[in-house]
Amino acid sequence: FFLGPSGSFKTTVGLCATTLFAEQPRVPAASFNDTTGALREKLSRSHGRVLLVDDFRPPCSAAERSRLNTSLEELVRLVGDSNERARLSANSKIVTSSRPQGALLVTGEITSGSESSMLRCLTVTVKKGEVSSDILADFTRDPLILSSHLNHFLLWAGNHGSEIINIIQTSSGSFRELFVDCAKEPRHRGIGVTLHTMALLLLWYLCD
Q1: 14: closest CA among 28, 32, 34?
Q2: CA gap 196, 193 in Å, rounded
Q3: Using 50, 70 and 90 to split pLDDT, how confident is the model at 96?
Q4: From the CA atom positions of the chain, what is the Rg in Å?
């Protein structure tokens, strides 16, 4: 969840993230102007991709608040739990949709939802002026920058497989102890351990 005010470039950064596994779109593939059903269908079609759902915004009415929260809750739980969704067809037969096979990236000016739903999100605050427009322009002009780096990283990881496994095994315990005092929820501790370990590997990759 990219959280930030209007003009913080959160949507443009989100569009760059979608180029990891697909061509760069000019506009977000989905937004909270879409109905919950339409968002659910777009998510089911984003196999192996990053689906960007743009503009979770302050509601103008109680009805809009309810619709926005319903859409966000359903999307987050579908991806966070990786569950299939069953529904009744017109013939009263149970139809089961496939579980989400991609990633979800939401941008918005506010967050919402139940505590259990937000525990399934990684919220990144994007402040105004924090993102360099010059650097962002490079990624926008050349959408292959991220996917090329991912390809090189995977090749590098393949050549250092045993060393990477050793780092994960030896560092995960110490990182988990670090987050015992910082996070009450086990899910947050797990996310913290994963991010710290990944940062360690990325620093090694960039310095290698």
Answers
A1: 28
A2: 5
A3: low
A4: 19
